[in-house]
Specification:
CATH architecture: 3-Layer(aba) Sandwich
Number of domains: 1
Distance between the termini: 49 Å
CATH superfamily: Alpha/Beta hydrolase fold, catalytic domain
Strand order of the largest sheet: 1-2-4-3-5-6-7-8
CATH topology: Rossmann fold
Number of helices: 12
Amino acid sequence: MSAQPSRPLTAIALLLLTGGCSDEPAAPTAGGAGLPATAGEARVVRAADGVPIVYEVHGQGDMSVVFVHCWGCNREFWRGQIEPVVAAGYRAVALDLPGHGDSGADRASWSVTSFAADVQAVADELQLERMVLVGHSMGGPVSLAVAGRDAGRVQGIICVDTLHDADFRMPEPMVNDLANRMEADYRGGLEDFVPQMFRPGADPAVIEWVIEQAVASDHPATIALMRDFPRLDMAGLFAEAGVPIRCINAAPADGQGMPTATETNRRYADFDVQLMEGVGHYPQLEMTPEFNDRLVAALAELTRGD
């Protein structure tokens, strides 16, 4: 690992990550639950601009659960959630957003909200009629944007350690400073701030795996996305989503983690949050069984009566 990062760098990195399938092995055992050893069959659909989007489908069901990963992540981050979701009677869909995992990166410009069209391309290809979006970190605002464009199909959103405060805007100078740092030393930047996303005592193998997945993503794409974060109109995305939003967020502790501004968010949407103790930014990896119980319960609430 590189030297301890400065306070401003750590702070903005935490904010950035809260708001590709590489040649590495599958994710290590996390939270006491072994992850499935095999992935589903990879399928490909083309985005509107021709970029290939890789996704996989598991199970059957009239209601689909579409997993939307975070910045520098990929569909493998949901490997431990597929079986519980399928066992609960849902069809599970996991995709690699462009610039991540196995999807393409030949795109002229990058923005978080433009990913909504990529998620829709997968939903259109599968002819999904009803879906719940599960978005981790950057996948939260992406999911809001999908719902705003396609509310007729989206029944609700479950966000994972994200959407903490609809009124918050990231300071552009600090974001650009971090983006410049990443351009100069991509791996070094990750090795500085990714460990800060985990609680003390977290499995080092999981931390290293997360870093390697981010290193394997397309660097120009992820840096461009980073520079787009200050332009996100979170309040507008909340208000335009038009569907219930349920968050599973890490409970702040010992100066780590962001508090969730529940009452602020409720001014814009049907919003609620449950907090997990003892986890960092990746609860689906850190406490897999407890996270899965909470996820399935949230799905049941959002799809009750279906």
